[in-house]
Amino acid sequence: MSILAMVLVGLLMGIVFGVALEKSRVFEPGMIVGQFQLRNFIMVKMFLTASATGLVVLAGLNGFGFVELHPKAAIYTATIVGGLLMGGGMAIAGACPGTVLAQIGSGYKDAIAVFAGGILGAMAFGYLEPTLKPILLTGGSGKITYADLLGMPFWQLALIAAAIIVVALALLERRQSWHDELGDDFDGCFEVNGTKSTSSAAGTPTPAE
Amino acid sequence: MVREALVSGLTSRAWSPYAAGVLIGLLQIPAFLAIDTALGASSSYVTMAGHLAALFDGGIAERAYFTKYMTGDKYFWQTALVVGIAAGAFLSSGLSGMRRIGFSPIWRTATGSRTLMGRGVMGFAGGFLLLMGARIAGGCTSGHGISGIAQLAVGSTVAVAAMFAGGILVANLFLKRV
């Protein structure tokens, strides 16, 4: 495929991705911070649904031999240090590397600063990579999957994992409905009967707790 | 029929997270079949950062980490993908009358940010940490998260657990409840 075709495919896929992020409201800083404060589970619901769908899709595509998998290498020190930093960054930025673009597209001005900080962060890592490589980016167990560990065909374990995720999501949804988590302004500000949760901090219980 | 469904879908203010999740998960089909890669986002920041650094650093071609992301075809695809995300959210928020202005009201509560400047400085620091962390970990919530779990990758489950741990820690220790 030519580079132009790849760029066009990327743009089209990105538009679908952006619409889905905006409509699910997962791009909202309030949804992301609310998720980390374990008050609003819309982000986890969308994220696990996307993962489960991917598991089913790849069980088919890989099981019938159409595609090879591309799992990332398991480099534990780097993954844990980087993951912790990234999670902290997500809470302060109110975004992840993909959703910050959706925030820019939907009009949030501070997202431009988050994006600029992200470019600088990636640039800083690019310059530091040769130095960090021997400390952080070595060892681990390579590009392994749980199917390799258990000695099962990928498609079998993928379908089992997808089923487990679906059951977990059904239980989560029964405990707290996504309709209630949206709030009146769809921005992740938690509201009870039109009152922002923060103004009822005097002790009024919220249904989420 | 299809047209009506598309119009009503695009003009509605919110979808179920499950509908949006299925749609995003299905994007793995073109990603694997057409590009032979998994959905991801954070590599494109290295592509953009590398091309930006090349403007003032003539020695960038000597740096293997940058050149990998500056020349690989699939990184051009991923850069187009993240540009598309902004276009999709622009379209979606415009069609549903949900355009956002300034910054999210949660920051007033969470961090006491009153001005765009104050919030912008904090956002910039957050963005720096976000991508520094993602590049150390070798992926973000898309690459390690959505795609890593979809491939049952061992390292990705560790990455996702660490991301949640870091996020929960910072959001509860340093941010007020929103």
Biggest interchain interface, per-side counts: A-B, 143 and 135 residues
Strand residues, percent of chain A: under 5%
Strand order of the largest sheet of chain A: 1-2
Low-confidence stretches of chain B: none
What is the percentage of strand-forming residues of chain B?
under 5%
Report what the structure shows:
The complex is a heterodimer of chains A (209) and B (178). Chain A is mainly alpha-helical. Chain A is 65% helix and 2% strand. Chain A has helices spanning 3-23, 29-36, 42-63, 76-93, 99-106, 110-136, 146-150, 154-175, 178-182, and strands spanning 191-192, 195-196. In chain A, helix 1 (3-23) packs across helix 5 and helix 2 (29-36) packs across helix 4 (76-93). The radius of gyration of chain B is 19 Å and the shape is globular. The longest helix of chain B is centred in the middle third of the chain and has 23 residues, at 73-95. Chains A and B meet through helix 1, helix 2, helix 3, helix 4 and helix 5 of A and helix 2, helix 3, helix 4, helix 6 and helix 7 of B.
Care to give the gist of this entry?
The complex is a heterodimer of chains A (209) and B (178). With 209 residues, chain A is an all-alpha fold. In chain A, 65% of the residues lie in helices and 2% in strands.
Topology (SSEs and partners):
The complex is a heterodimer of chains A (209) and B (178).
Chain A: H1 3-23, H2 29-36, H3 42-63, H4 76-93, H5 99-106, H6 110-136, H7 146-150, H8 154-175, H9 178-182, E1 191-192, E2 195-196
Antiparallel strand pairs in A: 1-2
Helix pairs in contact in A: 1-5, 2-4, 3-8, 5-6
Chain B: H1 2-11, H2 17-26, H3 28-35, H4 43-53, H5 64-71, H6 73-95, H7 106-111, H8 116-137, H9 141-150, H10 154-173
Helix pairs in contact in B: 4-5, 4-6, 9-10
